[in-house]
Amino acid sequence: MRTILFLLGILPFLHAQHRPNIIVIMTDDHAKNAVSIYGSRINTTPNIDRIGREGAVFTRGFVTNSICGPSRAVHLTGTYSHINGTVDHSSTRFNGGQWTYPQALQKAGYHTALIGKWHLGSIPTGFDYFSALVDQGEYYNPRFIQPGGDTIRMQGYTTELINEIAIRVIDSVRSSPFCILIHQKAPHRNWMPSPKHFSLYDSADIPMPENFYDDYAGRSKAASEQDMEVRNLYLSYDLKLFLEEGEAEPGSGGSERFKQQAKAAWERDLKRLTREQREAWDTYYRPISDAFYKNRPTGTALEEWKYQRYIKDYLRCIASVDDNIGVLLDHLLQKGILDSTVIIYTSDQGFFLGEHGWYDKRFMYEESIGIPFLVRYPPLIAPGTVRNELMLNLDVAPTMMDLAGLPVPDSLQGRSLLPLLQPSHPWDWRTSVYYHYYEYPHGWHKVKRHYGVRTERYVLIHFYNDIDEWELYDLWTDPGQMHNRADDPAMADIRASLTEELNRLRIQYRDTDPDPR
Ligand code: CA
Prior knowledge:
The protein is α/β, with parallel strands linked by helices.
């Protein structure tokens, strides 16, 4: 009898343990190289770092298809792109009728909400509430799609607005546990900072990566034929210059078609600003533009000027994200729910910050496929936990099920991270990851289709479609992926075993059709 009473007494406690609140903060294109807990040389992110410092830092987190919408679909469904159907942006829209973890949590009694970027072409499903940015979203005075399909426009800076809405939603939940997805637009192109951060980094020169002037020697044609070089960014739309009368956009910016519209698109962005915002904007950016035209740099000076313009605005957008995470953490602390809430910080993929001379992502190279992944939840995770296992965005959905105490469906292709949040070492954790990118020849940036395998030490990539070329890198001796050793006789045995592993993964994940589109 005493035992039964004891069990009845701890049941609510056990239940609560199985149903924590969950907040997933996902930014758009935030590279690990711009997060200080990952050793950034170029900025600090104290509030983002706090999540990892007081919880777990995953040092080898990757995506399976490095591009916004498809990565988000993997995150929601726990399945690869060829299974969930969203392989790229141009030709597919997300099927919201399929299994997703927000739907499963909602059915299990969670209050679910999505605030911010959706970018999957369909109306969000599985949420009790959503406020979703239209398409890519705007940095200032953004439009949000509401449940029921109405669109509202809110005045302010998008990063702050998304945080404010999320806090209101958190405050409105009464009894059930909640799962809130806070999906920031920042720091996605075209990197429009808040006036609060205009002058941040003004007195600094941000160091350029060593391989900024990469000549792509020895690599496949994919590396040299892409269109994502910092030196080709649009002067107006990307770098915020006020073009001179009649001046055409130089460079290509990733799309020859958009090149014709870039100047007009930039003018539309500026027209969205309120008078006050526009005054603040012109006060900061007009002198930069005037100085450029007065003493127009050329050659490497021009390339370096473009890098500084690009990277500073990118980092300023991240500064707003970090500030607002501080506001959110403080709010949860004041409400007394900080420690009973699982908080995840991640990005939909990585980003090139000048490595190989690039911005953007897509390639199966470390800067693009690597993601920050931090988890704070003191009841389960000891502060200072560091995990070096290979984890994937594919693992998020099964992890959510596990956190909520729900069974993980067999159809999911990822694996719950819960064992890695505790001091255990699962003997059968994955030792290789599989990747597949599809958006070519359509879409932006001309990155050729490819798939590949990454192990602890090596990466083997096959570029296909209009070429048939292989790249192989030893990450221990060549972390910057500058020396393709696919045809190096000394690597023949390693290439053979990687090819075997690649074929095994393609069968395991049922991706044997090279062109499922
Ligand atoms: Ca993205």
